[in-house]
Amino acid sequence: MPRPIIIDCDPGLDDAIALAMALRSPELDIKAITTSAGNQTPEKTLHNALGLLTLMQREDIPVAAGAARPLMRELVIADYIYGKTGMGNTHLP
């Protein structure tokens, strides 16, 4: 029986790969995804999560935007590493 889970992430390249693997795992039943600011803005991480779900034909999973900034430090946008979208040169739907 698949384990029901909620995934909290900040989808840039690294989390997008992990999320794609989780979406294809027969051991997981993803009930929802929450996104937050991380290496990119909360708007871009939300867009990346929704785009990945569209690409993988899993738009049935609800997505909610979470924290707009870290609790204990300033938000550092790492577009010099992950690009302007957080996904390098990858463009999602």
UniProtKB/TrEMBL annotation:
Gene3D superfamilies, per the entry: Ribonucleoside hydrolase-like
Any one of the GO BP annotations: purine nucleoside catabolic process
Domain Inosine/uridine-preferring nucleoside hydrolase positions: 5-91
Origin superkingdom: Eukaryota
SUPFAM superfamilies: Nucleoside hydrolase
Record's GO cellular component terms: cytosol
InterPro entries recorded: I/U_nuclsd_hydro_CS, Inosine/uridine_hydrolase_dom, IUNH, Ribo_hydro-like
Coiled-coil stretches: none
Molecular functions per Gene Ontology: purine nucleosidase activity; uridine nucleosidase activity
Entries under Pfam families matching the protein: IU_nuc_hydro (PF01156)
Keyword annotations: Glycosidase, Hydrolase
Family to which the UniProt record says this protein belongs: Belongs to the IUNH family.
Name of the molecule in the record: Ribonucleoside hydrolase 1
